[in-house]
Amino acid sequence: MRRNSLYFAGGIGSTLAIAAVIEITGGLPSQLAHLYYIPVVISALMLPAKLRLTVALLASVAVSPLPDLLHGPLGLNTYYDDPAPWNLSSGGWIVRPVAFFAVSTVASAIIKERAAKAEAEAGAKLLGERLIQERTAKHITMATSKHRGKELNLLSRIDKMILGGATETEALREIARLTAAFTGSPVAGIVVPDEHGKLLQMFYGHSEASERLAEERLPIGEGVSGWAIMHGTVATSPNVFNDARYMKMAEFARRAGYTSAAAAPIVLDDEVLGALFVGRADEHNFTSDELATLQRIADQTAIAVASARQRHSLEELAHETAIALSDAIESRDPYTGDHCSRLAEYATLTATALGLAAKDVQSIRLGAALHDIGKITVPDHVLKKPDKLTPDEYAIIKQHCYSGGQICKRVPFLHVAYPIVYHHHERFDGRGYPDGLKGDRIPLGARIVTVVDAYDAMTSDRPYRKALPLAEAETILRDGTGTQWDPEIVDTFLSAMDTAAKREPTLSRLEHSLL
Q1: Which among 88, 105, 89, 91 has a CA at the least distance from the CA of 44?
Q2: H runs (alpha helix) in 143-222
Q3: Same domain for 99 and 227?
C-alpha cells in the first residue's frame, strides 16, 4: 500500500511538473505532450486500476482545452482555438487523451495477465516442489538396498536438473541418458508423440555406444512404448521379435540392439505425455520391482516436463509483453513497423549460433525486443523527421538509451534486458554512447543487438532512403568490423543468416516469415 502511494505520488507529481514546464516555457501541449507518456506508462505498469486511470486522466486534462479556462482570465495566451472534441487536425487535442487511456489500459491488461499466469505458475511450482519432497521422502524410506540407493541418486539428479532450469528437450535427453546408465540397458529413451500425433519421436540415452543417439521417428502405437502411451499403463515384452505389437519397430530394435523391452507412461494431470522406455540385449521377464522403479522415474520425468513448460510459458509471456510495449511505441513511426520483432528473431538466431545457454538466449531476445523502448520520450517532430537531424535533435535521440534503461530498471522482470537496452549504441572501438565502452567491455547481448539493429536499419525502407540491397548491407557490416561492430558477432550473424536462407531458399530475408 505504501509503495502504491509513493508511485501514485510520483505519477501525479511528474504529470504536474511536465505541465509546469510547458506553462513556464510557453510550449504547446501538442508539441511536448509526448512527455506525459512517461508517468502514464510507468503508472500503468506499477499501479492498480483507479490510481493509474487517475494519472491518465490528469495527463489528459493537461493536454485538453481545460487549462485555457484559466488562461483567459489571467491574460495568458490560449493553447487551442477550437476545443471541439471532433477536431482531429494537427491543432486538435482529443487524440492525446485517447492514447493515454489506451496505453494505460493495454499495458495494465498485459501486466494483469502476466501476474495471473505467474501466480498460477508459482502455485504449480509449489505443487511440483511438494510432490518432489513427498516422493523423495517416500523413496528414502524405501532405500533398503544398494539398488534403491542408486535409484535415489538418479531421482536426486533429476531434481537438480529441474531446479537448474533445463528446457524440455534438454530434460528429456538427460533423463534418457541417466536411465540408460542406471539400468545398464543397451538402449533407453523417452518417447513422445510428434506435434501431429501421428509418429513417435524418441530421445535416446545409450550406455554402450554413445552418450546420445540421433532422434528418430517411429510409428505410433507400435511396441511397448506405443502401448504405454495409448493405454496409460506399464507395458513389457520379453522378446520383441515374437511380439505382435512390433512390426516396423522390429527392424529398429534390431539396429538398436535390444531383444526385450519395457515402458512406463509419463502422466501429468491425467494426460499421457509420453513413455520412458528401456531395452535389454537378451530375453528378459521384467520384475515388479524393476517396473516400479521405471514408473517412479517416469513420474519424476513428468515433473521435469511440467517445470520446463511452465518456465517456457513465463519466458514467452515476458517476450510477448515486451513486443506489445514495443509495438505501442513503433506505432508512432510507420517506417519502423515490426522492427523490434525482426530484431528479436535476428538476435535469437545469432545468440543460438554462438552456443549460448537457453537462459541467455531468452534474455537477449527480450532485450532486442525492448531495445528502443526509450524512444517513448523522443518528440514526434524529431523521431519522424525525414531530413538530417541537427546536433540538438541528435542529442535528444541519444537520450533514448538512458530512458529505456531506466524503464527496465523500474520493472523487475525487465532487469535482464537493462544491459542491452542501455548499451545497444556502443561501438566496438569505444566511440559509441552512452558510456563509450570498448570491445569486450560492452555486454555481449548489446554487441549482438548493435549488429542486427544496423543490418535491419540498412535493409529496411526509411523516410530518407530506400532499403539497401542485402549484399551491400553485408559489405558495410564487414567493413565496419573492429571499429563499429564486433568481428565475431558479424561473422556469426551473417553465417547464421546464410544457413537460414539455404534452409528456406525461397526467402530472401529471414523476416519474411514474420509477414
Answers
A1: 105
A2: 146-163, 168-183
A3: no
Question: What is the extent of the structural domain holding 430?
Answer: 332-514
Contact 470, 459 (CB under 8 A): yes
Contact between residue 337 and residue 330 where contact means Cβ atoms under 8 Å apart: yes
Assigned domain for 317 exists: no
Residue 367 lies in a domain: yes
State how many domains the chain has.
Answer: 3
Residues 298 and 370 occupy one common structural domain: no
Shared domain check, 158 and 96: no
Q: Is 318 inside any structural domain? A: no
Q: Are residues 357 and 305 in the same domain?
A: no
Report which DSSP code applies to 212. Answer: -
Q: What distances in angstroms separate CA 501 from CA 494, 496, 512, one per listed residue? A: 10, 9, 11
pLDDT along the chain (515 residues), means of 10: 79 82 69 74 78 82 75 68 55 68 70 67 71 64 53 62 66 78 78 71 53 59 86 92 87 85 88 87 89 86 79 73 68 63 91 91 89 85 81 90 89 87 95 94 96 91 77 94 96 92 53 36
Helix (H, G, I), strand (E, B) or coil at 275: strand
Give the 3-state secondary structure of residue 80.
coil
